Amino acid sequence: MDELAAARRAMGKGSVPAGDAYTIEVRRRYQAQIDDVWDALTNPERLHRWLKPVTGDLRLGGKFELDGGEHGEILRCEPPRLLKVSWLYGPDADAWPGTSEVQVRLAPSPTGDTEFELIHAAVVEEPLFPTYGPGAGGVGWDLHLLALTQLLAGGETADHEAVKKSPEGREFIRRSAAAWGEAHLAAGGEPVHVAAAVAATTKFYAPDPT
What we know:
40% of the residues lie in helices and 30% in strands.
């Protein structure tokens, strides 16, 4: 639960090549040197331990694909401070290029830690938003960044499915969805819609045991 409190979440507005976008934004500090955090973000041998296995041409302008179906192009790469990629999901997503982008910025702190900022921008018409709100992507990123914390602390590879099935993981998901609901409200979301989105997001990531 401390990991949830360590992050600052916000929902905002932005743009992607396809048009106006909403953004989900996560900011936090990692107790690790900036080069170590950058390596965890870009080294395939470490990336799969907190995110997913990745293949492709992993350089500026190259295309990548994650084991879960997420794929895109590396748009900016400025070691060790900035990484920006297009972020599409599923085989049909290529019909709508420029609809979703993820950007990560790193900055060293005076204490030697690393300030971390992730912004995921997606077009306003993105189909998951009306049902799930910002939690559609926000809870997923919270889970992966929890695993990144574990990796940077010298822990083992994350088992995302085991986390989702554990009582602690389900409580993490519930609180993460609620936190993104609060960010949605702060951005002007309608309370009834926000409550429904939080409930739908929680059920999606942590369905009732059968």
